[in-house]
Amino acid sequence: MSDDTIRLVTIGRMFRRRRRLLAVLAVLGALVGYGASLLFPPRYTASASVLLPGAWEERELLTQAEIATSSVVVDRAAAELGWSGVDGSELRDRVSARVADGNIIEVSGTAGTPERAQRLSDQVVQQFVTFAARVAGADVDSEAAARPEALRQLVARTSRRITELADAVDPGRTVESVQTRTELAKLRTALREAVTRLDQADPAADRATMVVMGPAVRPAGEAPPTRTQLVGGGALLFLLLGVVGHLAAARMSRRPRTAAEIAAALGSTPLGTVEVPDEQPAHRPEDRGPWVRIRRLLDLDVRWDAPAPHTSGDEAGGRVRHRRVCARLRDRLPAPRRLLAVVPDGDGTARRAAGQLLAEAGGDPLLRVVEVPAHRPVVPDRDEESGVLVVLSAGRWTAEELAGLAEACADAGHEVVGAVLADPVRTRPARSAGRSRSAGRPRDAATPALAVADDTTGGGAR
C-alpha cells in the first residue's frame, strides 16, 4: 500500500472493512455540527434594492455601495430602530451591499428573526437614500448650483455687450453694418439657447433622485449555514478526515509484506506460504476487556489495507504446497530435530497456518506451537528444541517487531531456521459430500495444532 496508487477499489475496500468506524466518525461529526448550530443561533437575511437613475460609472456605483454600509447610515438606522443592546457597530457586521445589474444597489440585512431582518433592511435603505439625497443636494446648492449661476451672469453680461456693439454700428447705412448687426443678434440667441439646454441636462439633478424598488421581502428560511448544513457538513468533514487518515496511515506504513522482506527482518530464510481459509477469528477467553470490545465493535481488528483473499485451488494442491514447505524445512535440518513454531500473539491466521503445518508434518520434524507477544516477545528457553520456525501473516507486523522477535529467539538460545507466511484464501464450495470425504485427511486433522497453540510452558507435543 505504501508504494501503490490509491484507487477506487482501495476506497471501496476501506468502506467495506471499516464501515462501523466510518459510521461512528460520521455520527460524531454530525453531533459536533449540531453543537455548533446551538452556539450560532439561526440568522435570517432580507434584501431591498435601490435604483440609481442616470449615467453612472462602475467606480461611482461601488462608492454608493460603500456609502450604504457606512457608519453614518448604519448608526442612523440603529437609532431609528431602537433595539435594546444593539448599536451601530454591531449592525455594521449584519449589513452588506452589492452592485447589481442596471444601476441597482442591493442592500441586505441579517437578524435573528425574519421580522427584524426585514425592518433592518428597509431602515438601512431609507437612511441610505436620505443621506445620499442630502449629500447630492448640498453639492447642487454649493458647487454644482454656483457654476450654472455664474455662467448665466456671464451670458447676461455678454448679451448686454453684444447689444451695445449692435447699437454702436451705423444702423442701416451700409451692407456691412447690417450684416454685423445680424451676426451679433444670432450670437446673442445662441448663447441663450445654450444656457437653456444646460439647465435641462443638469446631471446632478438626475442623480439626486434615488428610487427604492419596494420594501424588503420577509425571508422564509434561515441564512446559511443552517442547522441542517452544519450537521451534514460536520458528518461529511469527519468522514473525509477518517478516509484521509486511513490513506495517510497506509501510505506511511513500512510493514514488510513480501516473504523476502520478512525473512530479512528476521535474519532467516523464507520457506514458503501456507494457505489458510479466510474466516472470522474466534474470540478467545483472554480477548476480553473494554478496549478489546471497542476495537472489535469498530472493526479495528480487521485489516482494511490487505488485498482481498484470492480463491484457492483444490485441496490436493494446497496439501502439495504444505508438503513442499515441510520438505524445505527438513532440508535445512541436518538431522531430525524438534522445532519451536513461534506465532505472534493475536495473529489468528498464522495460528491456523501453524496448526495445518503441524498436521502436515506428521512428527517430522516435531513441532511445538507457542504464541508470544509481538511488542514484548518472550520465547521459552531452549529445552529439547534446537531451532525456531516463525509463522506469521504478511503486512501485519513492523520490521522493529520482527527484529525484536528474532532477538528474543536468540536470547532464548534458539536459531531461527526459517519463516513461513500464512496466506488467507477463499475456499471453493464443495461439489459433493463424497468428494469432500475422499479428498484427503479430514479437517479434524488440524485440531491438535489448535490444542497445543496455547502451550507456552515448555512442554512438547509427543
UniProtKB/TrEMBL annotation:
InterPro entries: Bact_polysacc_biosynth/exp, LPS_length_determ_N, TAT_signal. Keywords: Cell membrane, Membrane, Transmembrane, Transmembrane helix. The chain crosses the membrane at residues 21-40, 230-249. Residues 4-63 form the Polysaccharide chain length determinant N-terminal domain. Residues 430-439 have a biased composition (Low complexity). It comes from the Bacteria. The keyword Transmembrane applies. Belongs to the CpsC/CapA family. This is Polysaccharide biosynthesis protein. It comes from Streptomyces pimonensis.
